[in-house]
Design a protein that fits this description.
single chain; alpha/beta; Rossmann fold; 9 strands; globular
């Protein structure tokens, strides 16, 4: 089975291609940018180009996208052209090629305003049942593309899995206040509690989705590191997150203190990946407990694949 990976010059696309090549699995990388992991150079907005890349393809992993940082540099029409029309073209070509699976990389950013609790309310327990309220054109176009994915399952019985991934990029936080107050590694360790996932675990989720798509048909899954929190913790997290974390991880204060690190004072949402673990049999390996173990051992909690892929930035 040849797997077509769109966005093969990006963070996730390169990581997927590295893994597929290492396992000697037939894979074809597609991206608008040349790279060592890109076999087909062109735009997903070019239907003829997509068609030329499809022979022999039995599964598509669609990771190419304009992302949140592009909101400042690209027009709304650009987002529609790439995130919606590009996805539509890929879906149509996947049907024409009799593909057996289509995996769409979406984002927890699609939830948008639904992630923000009202004043005095507990943190939000974010499952697949939470209705998205997109904040910007990025979220709007990703939700619209998800809708096309579901439509193609209903109309053409194309097996489609939508993976709403939380943060896995290595760049600094886009919140200037956070970036100015915390080291990048400190921020990313904190985020493993509730809104981050390691890129190796993301790759694993995508490849499991390829395997299981035909049996599942259509589904959406949140892909985020296993959270240590339960619903009973939500009120405390939005009021005094360090108190909750130190109760669950008494060693955290010592390990963080030795590095001069700090926990965030409050946590306003918790991404819950229980459904992916149950239905995809996904077993994320890298979570906050893993990060603490690495701090104790004096090693980097960010695994080799993340360092190999490195920082990409968000170019044109």
């Amino acid at each position: 089975m040849t797997i077509l990976v769109t966005g093969s010059a990006g963070h996730l696309g390169e990581a997927l291609m590295r893994r597929l090549r290492a396992e000697h699995r037939p894979a074809r990388g597609m991206d608008i940018k040349p790279s060592p992991f890109t076999d087909c150079v062109g735009s997903i907005g070019d239907r003829d180009f997509i068609n030329a890349c499809m022979p022999g393809v039995r599964a598509v992993i669609h990771a190419a996208s304009l992302h949140k940082p592009h909101v400042a540099t690209h027009s709304k029409l650009d987002f529609v052209d790439i995130n919606i029309l590009g996805t539509l073209a890929l879906l149509e070509e996947a049907v024409a090629a009799a593909a057996e699976a289509f995996i769409f990389t979406s984002t927890t950013s699609a939830f948008g305003a639904a992630l923000t609790p009202a004043a005095g309310e507990p943190a939000v327990w974010v499952t697949e049942e939470v209705a998205p309220i997109p904040r910007n054109i990025y979220g709007v176009t990703k939700v619209a593309a998800e809708g096309f994915c579901q439509l193609f399952f209903r109309e053409h019985r194309l097996p489609v899995i939508v993976l709403r991934t939380s943060r896995f990029f290595p760049e600094a936080d886009d919140d200037d206040a956070i970036s100015a107050s915390y080291e990048i590694a400190n921020v990313q360790a904190n985020e493993l509690l509730y809104r981050r996932v390691d890129i190796e675990d993301v790759v694993g989720a995508h490849l499991l989705a390829v395997e299981k798509a035909r049996n599942i048909g259509f589904a959406r899954f949140i892909i985020s590191a296993a959270t240590p929190f339960g619903r009973d913790d939500l009120a405390g997290l939005n009021r005094n997150a360090p108190e909750v974390v130190h109760r669950l991880f008494p060693e955290c204060a010592e390990l963080y203190g030795a590095r001069g690190w700090r926990l965030f004072p409050r946590i306003d949402r918790v991404y819950v990946s229980h459904r992916a673990m149950a239905e995809l049999t996904w077993k994320p390996k890298y979570d906050f407990r893993h990060a603490l173990q690495c701090l104790r051992a004096g090693t980097d909690f960010r695994i080799p694949l993340a360092r190999e892929v490195g920082s990409k930035g968000y170019g044109p």
